[in-house]
Amino acid sequence: MADAPIIPDEAEVRARWGAFQWNDDSKAKRDAILSRYPAGREQSASIPLLDLAQRQVGAETQTQGWLPVPVIEFVAREIGVPYMRVYEVATFYTMFNLAPVGRFHVQVCGTTPCMLRGSDDVLAACKNKGLIKGKTTPDGLFTLTEVECMGNCSSAPMVQINDDNYEDLDYDRTIAILETLANGGAPKPGTQEPGRHTVEPKGGPTSLTAMVTENHDYRDEWNVAAQGADA
Amino acid sequence: MPKVKVDGVEIEVPQGATVLQACELAGKEIPRFCYHERLSIAGNCRMCLVEVKPGPPKPQASCALPAAENQEIFTNTPMVKHAREGIMEFLLINHPLDCPICDQGGECDLQDQSIAYGRGHSRFDENKRAVTEKYMGPIVKTVMTRCIQCTRCIRFAEEVAGVEEIGAIYRGENMQITSYLEEAVSSELSGNVVDLCPVGALTSKPYAFEARPWELRKTLTIDVMDAVGTNIRLDSRGRQVLRAVPRVNDDVNEEWASDKTRHAVDGLVRKRLDRPYVRRDGKLHAVTWDEAFAAIAAVEHGGSVAAVAGDLVDCETMFAAKALLKGLGSSLLEGRQTGMDYDTSSLAAVNFNTTIAGTEEADAILLVGTNLRWEAPLVNTRIRKAIKKGAKVFAIGPETELTYKVEWLGADLSVLGNLPERVTEAFGKAAKPMVIVGGAALKGAHGAALGLVETLGLVKDGWNGFNVVHMAASRMGGLMLGYAQPAGISALYDAKLTFFLGADECDHARFTGFKVYVGHHGDRGAHHADVILPGASYAEKSGTFVNLEGRVQRGERAVFPPGDAREDWTIFRALSERLGQTLPFDTIDELRAAMALDCPELATLGLKTFAWSAPALGTVAEGVLEGYPIKDFYLTNAICRASPTMQRCSAELVHGESFAEAAE
Ligand code: SF4
Ligand code: FES
Ligand code: FES
């Protein structure tokens, strides 16, 4: 199929990643992950371990990380399940990269709400910064992917870059974020709309207003209301 | 037992039955793609939708819904009809309309069901998706665009074959079925996915574009590639057998067949002996039957005559040879070509007493010197089933991959004398303990294994847990007909005249007398022969075979032998006349009547049980097992060795040669 990534399993990949092992940091995390599942159910750890492995590959290659086939096999051996079963998982979830990506994996949402709110401009900004869909920039910094709804529609349009979401974008804000990243900076994640806090409506919140400044516990009030209704 | 109503007819169904099974019991046909009796339930094709009351007002997948008391099931309402049409239309959205060039054509579930349940047209006029072909090995050809993602092949590989190498990668519209990294599937049962695949996504590579199903003549017969006695159907056109497919027999092969059973048939038209030969001045010369017989008649044997039965011969052939030898004053018969000399005084002691189907019930199993995966793949699948029900398996022998978890006890047979505590403990708790002795251990440990009958309590009321696995289709029949010498085959070496009945595995050079080879392939036996009499292969004669559990089965003739070749028993009949010892039968029925007198067990078909009695043998087991008798699963007999498909399987799957680029 045209869109499905070609999974590299060449000799070079095997040579580079065949000896993959957890580093100390990952080892501790691996133990913590495995301890969450009862004995005999290690297969349940497929997804967290694949993620852990992808992050370690990312750290080793200064990128967001990806899953070379030998690393997938390593994870399968870790939990004692056939390669095929872990391979299926790795190919199913789009968060697992099956081919190398750049340091920043720019995932622009192009689904209807974001499209209506201007994701075309976001993509145009990416394009003008030299990002091409499905490709990594020559300097190895950015990989651009168009994705489906990321669940941020109320602050659309948005982009996910590695572990952070950047919302309420337009052309200029996207350029600014990409430039900050390229210069080694760390843009503020979340909404880029000045004055906007989370995904509250324009003009300030209309409900849960007590939540704006502090984490207000509404439960007592609700109980009162409920008792009132009962009576 | 819940009572349900299917289309107004009340029936009682077994506890745990699904709605689909209830409908079948009521005689209603439910279309399906993903559901298969012998695999787990997936419920992903939705073709089996029915209406069920009480329940939500929408069609329900009957294969995954348990039948419950007082359920009302409807299979012929407008809702069901509409639902089926809808599913059919969905399935056909991405299915190519390439039936004219598809090998499944004529035996395709999708074709049949779209005619029966589809609307006849589609409203989809976008582009269809296309999927690249996947390499799955020498047996399975793939056209993945046709796949409807029923996942039967995945479930078969995981559940029955025990090699989790087939899977579904990507998701949604991009989902594709493939073997891991498109490597050859390393199962000797891989051909079964071809039968399971309801569409033409997985088809048979060796049989690709050979024939259409309606051109084939179908003959029911018995497979001879191993001692399981797989029930098969040979499909032939003209003089050639084009394919072998399994028949359903729950007692023997369920509905599976090994790749060897299926695909050795292309060896039937290669390297055939189609005329008699006589050796003159060290060279074989083609002659007439008369000249060949004359050469045999000229041998001065003085009653020193022997017969060696090959692995593939039927009881009729062995009986005819036996009768001829008797006339010539000899009873030097042997079938264990590799020199085995285990005690045969009690057939129960060399039989698979638990029976193949009974294996499923065992709860503790000890394998002694057997690589079951190669020696009897379809017994191996039963052990997998037993394990699913909770059986524990121990094994003695060199470690090998059996497709399930085994606790290895080392390769030293002496461990039989003092089994580790965990073994005795497991067997102590077992209600149905089972020991399976393979060819590798019969030499050194037959007695010791028989000793376990006492110590582990293998034989009890209604249960016999002592088993021997044979590998030759002719073995049990041969033993019943007396093809065994106390000293084994070495007792025959000095016979003045020896008949080799398709015997290719023995050490022919050790035979000092005149060698007559009666068989169908120009293999090892023929190379050493002084006279070659061309016979018929299992596909070319009606023959009786006894499988490893003592089940007498009979197969029919699918095609005629090539050239001057004849059915083997007729050869002995003709030769006997020439030797002045005319055999007293002129037809196969007369032969069978005579055989029944000689060996009453062979008179009727079906499972024979041999009364349990164990010969007194020394119970000391010694020796370290170096390996198993079968070195190459795909090349165990003359037919396989002549088969290009089996040669290819051997090269690729056993010897690791790479053919991956051959993927079309
Ligand atoms: S290849 Fe055949 S058996 Fe396997 S999922 Fe596809 S349609 Fe089903
Ligand atoms: S549509 Fe873009 S986040 Fe939901
Ligand atoms: S047969 Fe029931 S969903 Fe496929």
SSE inventory with pairings:
The complex is a heterodimer of chains A (231) and B (664).
Chain A: H1 11-17, H2 24-34, H3 46-61, H4 69-79, H5 83-92, E1 104-109, H6 112-116, H7 119-128, E2 142-147, E3 159-161, E4 164-167, H8 171-182, E5 190-191, H9 219-230
Parallel strand pairs in A: 1-2, 4-5
Antiparallel strand pairs in A: 1-3, 3-4
Helix pairs in contact in A: 2-3, 3-4, 4-5, 7-8
Chain B: E1 3-6, E2 9-12, H1 19-25, E3 49-53, E4 60-61, E5 71-74, H2 78-93, H3 109-117, E6 140-142, H4 152-161, E7 166-169, E8 176-179, H5 192-196, E9 202-204, E10 217-222, E11 231-237, E12 240-246, H6 259-263, E13 277-280, E14 283-286, H7 289-297, E15 305-309, H8 315-327, E16 332-334, E17 364-368, H9 372-375, H10 377-388, E18 392-396, E19 407-408, H11 421-429, E20 433-437, H12 439-455, E21 459-460, E22 463-464, E23 466-468, H13 475-480, E24 497-501, E25 514-519, H14 524-528, E26 531-534, E27 543-546, E28 551-555, H15 568-578, H16 588-598, E29 606-607, H17 638-642, H18 644-654
Bound molecules: iron/sulfur cluster and FE2/S2 (inorganic) cluster (2 copies).
Describe what this molecule looks like in 3D.
The complex is a heterodimer of chains A (231) and B (664). Chain A is 41% helix and 9% strand. Chain A has helices spanning 11-17, 24-34, 46-61, 69-79, 83-92, 112-116, 119-128, 171-182, 219-230; strands at residues 104-109, 142-147, 159-161, 164-167, 190-191. In chain A, strand 4 (164-167), helix 8 and strand 5 (190-191) form a beta-alpha-beta unit. In chain A, helix 2 packs antiparallel against helix 3 (46-61), helix 4 (69-79) crosses helix 5 and helix 7 packs across helix 8 (171-182). The longest helix of chain A has 16 residues, at 46-61. The model of chain A has no long low-confidence stretch (mean pLDDT 90). The model of chain B has no long low-confidence stretch (mean pLDDT 94). In chain B, 52% of the residues are buried. Chain A binds chain B through residues 1, 3-4, 7, 9, 69, 82-85, 87-88, 91-92, and chain B through 129-132, 164-171, 174, 176, 179-181. Bound molecules: iron/sulfur cluster and FE2/S2 (inorganic) cluster (FES) (2 copies). One FE2/S2 (inorganic) cluster binds next to loops of chain B.
